[in-house]
Design brief:
By secondary structure, this protein is of the alpha+beta class. The chain is built from 1 helix and 2 strands. The chain starts with 12 loop residues before the first helix and ends in an 8-residue tail after the last strand.
């Protein structure tokens, strides 16, 4: 017969699942940011006002 005993190892299972999900999302966001940085690096223009991202496809006509 299982009883609820505060402070036991089984009671931390939900916290471990949430922590793993948070770490996974954080790593996925970091990987996406690094991929976007290296992928868009050729479109960055350095101007006296600062950095500009000049993408080729939204050309104004």
């Amino acid at each position: 017969m299982a009883r609820y005993v505060p402070g036991t190892y089984k009671n931390h299972r939900a916290a471990r699942i949430i922590a793993r999900a948070f770490i996974f999302l954080l790593l996925a966001a970091l990987a996406l940011a690094v991929t976007m940085f290296f992928g868009l690096r050729r479109y960055i223009a350095y101007t006296p006002d600062g950095l500009r991202l000049e993408l080729p496809w939204p050309e104004d006509e």
